[in-house]
Design goal:
Number of strands: 8
Structural class: alpha+beta
CATH topology: Jelly Rolls
Radius of gyration: 17 Å
Number of helices: 4
Largest sheet: 4 strands, antiparallel
Strand content: 25-35%
Distance between the termini: 22 Å
Number of domains: 1
Oligomer: single chain
CATH class: Mainly Beta
Strand order of the largest sheet: 1-8-3-6
């Protein structure tokens, strides 16, 4: 089993708070924090809430991805399969989100498996809904995409810095 460093999916944007309404959860999420109250209300009617049972997979590595998820209650384990076995990348808690790359990735292929650790309530926001927002409410869509690009950019920067450090320390050999 390969142990993966936690930085690859480090949750930089987590805000813990229990018993939130969906609007409150959306408002606190970095992707939606710039939306005004009316836009948040609109978004709350678009997203989907679902409860996952302990051990139930939200999605599998290699599956086609159609959207992202926010954790309202519970926790999700993110793991990946490597050539030598399966390894845990990280564990995400209330207020965290994952799968956001599928909102913009043209290939929509999941790079890891997400599994509910216990009974977990998730809010799903899917690519077709984002595309509809962009068509019907372009200003709202641009706000979401700007925040999404900021998140992806920060995660890429952090990953690049960690890989550089790992190469310097000899943990990862350059190709």
């Amino acid at each position: 089993m390969i142990k993966h460093p936690h930085f690859l999916w480090k949750d930089l944007f987590q805000k813990k708070k229990s018993n939130q309404t969906i609007i409150d959860a959306l408002k606190e999420n970095v992707l939606f924090c710039t939306l005004n109250q009316r836009e948040l209300k609109t978004l709350s009617h678009i997203v989907y809430e679902r409860v996952y049972q302990p051990g139930e997979d939200v999605f599998h590595q290699g599956d086609r991805g159609f959207g992202m998820y926010m954790i309202l209650k519970g926790s999700i384990v993110i793991k990946t399969e490597a050539l030598s076995g399966e390894g845990m990348i990280t564990k995400l808690h209330e207020g965290s989100f994952f799968g956001e790359l599928s909102l913009v990735d043209p290939n929509n292929i999941r790079t890891a498996t997400a599994t509910a650790e216990g009974k977990t309530s998730l809010v799903g926001f899917f690519k077709p809904d984002l595309l509809e927002i962009l068509e019907r409410k372009p200003q709202m869509g641009v706000k979401i995409l700007f925040q999404l690009s900021s998140v992806l950019g920060r995660r890429l920067l952090e990953t690049t810095e960690k890989i550089t450090l790992m190469r310097k320390t000899g943990f990862v050999e350059p190709k």
